[in-house]
């Protein structure tokens, strides 16, 4: 048996990471095989910019629930590849608004069929599951939004030290 599976709850984060890495490797291979110089790390930000149009860095971070520095790192890579362009906001000159560049717009129709295939395959796999992984992940994220894992573990440790 898989040792991480044996560890069950103790290895939950490691198993999620392993699952994520399995996906990322496959998606990266599909991009490469399709002749696209596109990194899997860029996808959610690229899709958000493509769907929403000009959007600020802070809004991207808020919408995706990731840190501002993480967004900046991806934005810098997308700008370096000339897939997005930034303009200053008319309302706030300090704010950068990001949109797909001509190269980004040209790449979008090449990416979309791959993303459609990813969705189809994921749906097929989810339909074969007893418990829908996406629903379970959402439930875990909701619980962690109410109280962080750190705070939950601290409370458990405190309860054990003061029976």
TrEMBL record:
List, alphabetically, the PROSITE patterns matched.
HTH_MARR_2
Which InterPro entries did the record assign? ArsR-like_HTH, HTH_MarR-typ, MarR/SlyA-like, WH-like_DNA-bd_sf, WH_DNA-bd_sf
One GO molecular function term of this record is: DNA-binding transcription factor activity
* HTH marR-type domain sequence ranges: 9-146
The answer to whether keyword Protein biosynthesis applies is no
Q: Does the keyword Protease apply?
A: no
For this protein, the record's Pfam families field holds:
MarR_2 (PF12802)
- Keyword set for this entry? DNA-binding, Transcription, Transcription regulation
The name this protein carries in UniProt is MarR family transcriptional regulator
Give the species this sequence originates from.
Spirosoma sordidisoli
């Amino acid at each position: 048996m898989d040792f991480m599976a044996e560890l069950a709850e103790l290895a939950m984060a490691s198993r999620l990471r392993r699952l994520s890495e399995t996906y990322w490797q496959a998606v990266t291979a599909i991009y490469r095989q399709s002749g696209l110089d596109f990194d899997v790390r860029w996808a959610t930000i690229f899709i958000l910019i493509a769907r929403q149009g000009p959007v600020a860095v802070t809004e991207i971070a808020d919408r995706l629930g990731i840190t501002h520095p993480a967004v900046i790192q991806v934005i810098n890579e997308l700008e370096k590849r000339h897939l997005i362009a930034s303009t200053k906001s008319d309302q706030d000159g300090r704010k950068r608004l990001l949109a797909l560049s001509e190269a980004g717009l040209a790449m979008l129709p090449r990416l979309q069929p791959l993303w459609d295939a990813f969705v189809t395959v994921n749906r097929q796999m989810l339909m074969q599951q007893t418990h829908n992984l996406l629903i379970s992940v959402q439930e875990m994220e909701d619980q962690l939004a109410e109280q962080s894992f750190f705070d939950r573990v601290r409370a458990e440790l405190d309860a054990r030290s003061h029976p």
